[in-house]
Write a structure and sequence with these properties.
This protein is mostly helical. The chain contains 24 helices and 7 strands.
């Protein structure tokens, strides 16, 4: 059930309010988890309502992922248009690590939602300069701190820099507003740590991830500076932390290209080059002027992107691959904003467009090189499509053609990410299960086989044979009835001058031998299966005129008598291709003649290519 470490904590928190308050790993309250309990509170409340199950824990996570995509879309749309917002939302929704954390019970989904909400509130606040938006941003950062502590503080420098630079109501007012936002962050973020700090150690669980049972050690050490500059305990921490424990696959060596290595590149490194080119190009286009409404977006989103990328590249402590999920929203927003500028400004499109596509192709090729055997066909496609799109943009196309070219290029850049999402996590188990499954042997059945111009026989089917397959309740029951009644299938030509009654699928054409699958006669039980020509219905009835015939009824209540295309006609079963269209008197004479004849002589009815020889049951006379 996803991460069993947090699953066990959620179960204990859903059973005991004491464990719920302190985020205890066990119901008896011996030890907490190594993170604040806000993300686990959401899951525990869901489990209390819906019961302990994977569905109850993961649905809130999925909703958080959807909300993050919505915030990125709205944040980009406000200053760069709907096309830019759509590109940003699509890029984030197709990021593999975003999808992964949205269906996992780690606290990263809530962390990403909180930091994205903080930047979104800042962008909204820069439009009118009201303090409430900055306070809302501070509350969002504080909630992110309650979800994963120090990781939420990576966006604070960008928020402060953007607000001070733009200063909608002046520098002095900007400082006061920042202090109000900082106070909101402090109050919300330190609420639970202060609660643990004021509670006696004998009345609460031991704080996991620490050696002195102090919440401040957890904030500054294990979940703080220790992540950046190294820490003791190794992967997973001293308490067997989340995400796999010792021996797991982690972020690899530190360095400038760490986000493009085998562990991290395939998760969120696909569009890093496009985002880097985008933030530089947006800074040049806007000139970071205070009067440009886009400047605050560029500083806030670009600053959060650069701060997070540098911190993740430099981190020497415990670093899991899913940590880069905090970088994905800002990468997507920068790519979407660059697309918006290219769509609106022809001059910017001639320079910034080809550079953005080139940066995206370079990083995607580097990611694919570190993942050999995966999407080997993609680099040539990227080079051809992105190169052609870059040349087209440099030529200065009009708005509509430019939009089509950009859409095609972005679609190809996102193709690798979308293809990676198609991989199911249990592909290996499914392949092993399919390999161990016993292969079914084909069953050789004996069928009714027809030879042209001869009597039908039983035997194995040959290539030049045509199979007769009954319809209705099944072949086995049909064969049992056939053996019990002693019936025999025969073939015979249609008699001259006889007509075929039209109706159903394949009407107006002779019923070919073996064409039962294309021309099945299905009717509700107890209703008329077929009508004679004399009832005035269908082309055959109109040609024959009013002959006084009555509709043919089944041989028993609710029985299907149209099996294998056969019809009831005057006590005999005729083929589904036609029936006897002669007047009533002639039909009666023919029936009497057949009764007096030898039973070994097959009767070949009119309009039929196959019939059965049997003694017909007596039927009531219909003479008026």
């Amino acid at each position: 059930m996803a991460n069993t470490y947090y699953s066990a904590a959620v179960r204990s928190m859903s059973e005991s309010w004491h464990a719920f308050l302190y985020g205890s790993f066990d119901a008896t309250g011996i030890m907490t988890v190594d993170k604040p309990p806000l993300a686990l509170w959401v899951q525990a409340l869901s489990v209390r309502v819906f019961g302990f199950s994977a569905w109850a824990m993961l649905v809130p996570q999925a909703l958080m992922g959807v909300a993050t995509v919505a915030l990125v879309y709205d944040m980009t749309r406000r200053h760069f248009g709907r096309g830019a917002g759509f590109a940003a939302g699509l890029a984030l929704a197709l990021t593999p690590i975003t999808v992964a954390i949205s269906r996992h019970n780690n606290p990263d989904a809530l962390l990403v939602l909180c930091v994205t909400g903080a930047v979104w509130a800042l962008v909204r606040g820069l439009d009118d300069g009201r303090t409430r938006w900055l306070v809302l941003a501070g509350i969002s950062v504080g909630l992110g701190f309650e979800a994963k502590m120090g990781a939420a503080l990576l966006v604070v420098p960008a928020i402060a820099a953007a607000w001070l630079w733009v200063a909608p109501r002046g520098r002095v007012a900007a400082v006061r507003q920042l202090l109000a936002g900082g106070a909101a962050t402090t109050v919300v973020g330190l609420a639970w740590p202060v609660l643990l700090w004021l509670t006696p150690s004998a009345s609460r669980p031991w704080i996991s991830g620490t050696s002195d049972n102090s919440i401040w050690s957890l904030i500054t050490g294990y979940n703080g500076l220790g992540r950046l500059f190294g820490q003791d305990g190794g992967p997973g921490g001293g308490a067997g932390g989340p995400g796999g424990g010792p021996g797991g696959v982690f972020g690899g060596d530190t360095g400038a290209l760490r986000l493009l290595n085998e562990a991290l590149g395939g998760q969120a490194g696909w569009l890093l080059g496009a985002a880097l080119v985008g933030v530089a190009g947006l800074a040049v286009v806007t000139r970071l002027a205070r009067t440009d409404a886009r400047t605050g977006f560029v500083i806030a989103v670009g600053g959060a992107f650069l701060t997070t990328a540098v911190a993740f590249s430099r981190a020497e402590g415990i670093f899991h691959p899913y940590y880069v999920s905090a970088l994905a929203p800002f990468t997507a927003a920068l790519v979407g904003a660059t697309v918006g500028v290219v769509l609106r400004d022809r001059t910017a499109a001639q320079i910034l467009g080809p550079l953005m596509l080139a940066g995206g192709v370079v990083t995607e090729v580097m990611v694919l090189e570190d993942n050999p055997g995966s999407l080997e066909w993609l680099p040539p496609v990227l080079a051809i499509v992105a190169g052609g799109a870059g040349v087209a943009l440099a030529m200065g196309l009009d708005a509509k053609l430019r939009a089509a070219v950009v859409a095609a290029a972005i679609g190809v850049l996102l193709l690798g990410r979308a293809r990676r999402l198609r991989r199911r996590p249990d592909d290996g188990r499914r392949a092993a299960r399919d390999a161990g499954r016993r292969r079914r042997r084909p069953v050789r059945r004996r069928r009714l086989v027809a030879e042209r111009g001869r009597q039908l026989r039983r035997g194995p089917r040959r290539r030049d044979d045509r199979r007769l397959q009954p319809v209705g309740r099944g072949r086995r029951a049909h064969h049992r009835r056939r053996r019990r009644r002693g019936d025999r299938w025969v073939l015979g030509p249609r008699e001259p001058g006889e007509r075929r009654v039209a109706g159903g699928r394949g009407a107006g054409r002779p019923h070919p031998l073996g064409g039962h699958r294309r021309h099945r006669w299905r009717h509700a039980p107890g209703r008329s299966r077929r009508r004679d020509a004399g009832d005035g219905r269908g082309p055959a009835g109109r040609q024959a005129g009013q002959l006084g015939e009555r509709p043919v009824r089944p041989a028993g209540a609710g029985r299907r008598v149209a099996r294998a295309g056969l019809l009831l006609r005057g006590g005999q079963r005729a083929g589904g291709a036609g029936c006897d269209a002669r007047p009533r008197s002639q039909a009666t004479t023919a029936r009497a003649t057949r009764r007096s004849a030898s039973s070994s002589t097959p009767w070949l009815p009119s309009g039929s290519t196959r019939t059965r020889e049997r003694r017909a049951p007596r039927r009531r006379s219909s003479n008026a």
